[in-house]
Specification:
Blueprint (H helix, E strand, L loop, with lengths): L8 E5 L10 H10 L4 E4 L6 H18 L2 E5 L2 H7 L3 E4 L6 H8 L4 E5 L4 H9 L4 E4 L17 H9 L4 E4 L7 H7 L3 E4 L1 H4 L4 H10 L2 H6 L1
Helix pairs in contact: 1-2
Bound molecules: ligand LCLJCK34, 4-methyl-5-hydroxyethylthiazole phosphate (TZP) and magnesium ion.
The site of ligand LCLJCK34 has 15 residues, from strand 5 and strand 7.
């Protein structure tokens, strides 16, 4: 597999708990087997040793299939372990600092909530993708600000970057998000809280295929 950010697809974000009852590594291995090409390691705990060890294990898995591992919030951890990049929120450290420290090859994604203007700014500052949401209520981040579906289409029209949708995404909701113009669907619960992770991921990607064939 050759990873391509512009190709879009399914973006699996880990939870700090193991949701499926197996192990974090097994969960990610299953998601990769199901066709996820972009993984985000997201653990808000302050235990650096654990985070570093887990992120390195996930990076090894991603390397083995040519997928991409981003680290949430923490560009230092990304730099330490040689991850592919980082996802930064509006409250996190600045894009310019992360870019300077990680270099031009790194992938840097930016949270833009429900605001196109934040995405335009992120694009000007050299982001590689922008993420909007939450499109639906999310049990993983209950206080996430809601974003309207119509934003995806507007973002596609006005940006030259891949657009990521996040927040409460399920397989049933996936078709409308792909249709509205999301390039990537970023999902925690509806991937990792499943017993059949690989199969479920394949179903997400299968419902995108007819749209891709049309374009
Ligand atoms: C792909 C993607 N989009 C949005 C977020 C949220 O980032 P942020 O607003 O910094 O919130 P936390 O994830 O840090 O709680 C994300 N992580 N990934
Ligand atoms: C990190 C984040 N940012 C906005 S919603 C969200 C959580 C997404 O998780 P889920 O797919 O379980 O709703
Ligand atoms: Mg953050």
């Amino acid at each position: 597999m050759t990873f391509s950010l512009t190709q879009g697809g399914l973006y699996a974000i880990t939870d700090s708990r193991c949701l499926s009852g197996t192990s974090l590594e097994q969960e990610v291995e299953d998601a990769l087997q199901g066709g996820c090409t972009l993984i985000q390691y997201r653990d808000k705990s302050s235990d650096h040793a654990k985070r570093s060890q887990q992120a390195q294990a996930l990076l090894k898995l991603c390397h083995s299939v040519g997928a991409c591992l981003l680290i949430n919030d923490d560009w230092r951890l990304a730099a330490d372990i040689g991850a592919h990049g980082v996802h930064l929120g509006q409250q996190d450290e600045q894009l310019e600092i992360a870019r300077r420290e990680l270099g031009n090859q790194a992938i840097i994604g930016i949270t833009c909530h429900d605001q196109l203007s934040l995405a335009v700014e992120a694009q000007q500052q050299g982001a590689d993708y922008v993420a909007f949401g939450a499109f639906y209520p999310s049990s993983s981040k209950p206080n996430a600000r809601p974003a309207p579906l119509s934003l995806l289409n507007k973002a596609q029209q006005s940006l030259q970057l891949p657009v990521v949708a996040i927040g409460g995404i399920t397989l049933q909701r996936a078709p409308e998000l792909w249709q509205q113009g999301a390039d990537w669907l970023a999902v925690i619960n509806d991937i990792f809280a499943r017993q059949n992770i690989a199969e479920h991921c394949r179903s997400y990607l299968a419902c995108r295929q007819p749209l891709r064939d049309q374009r």
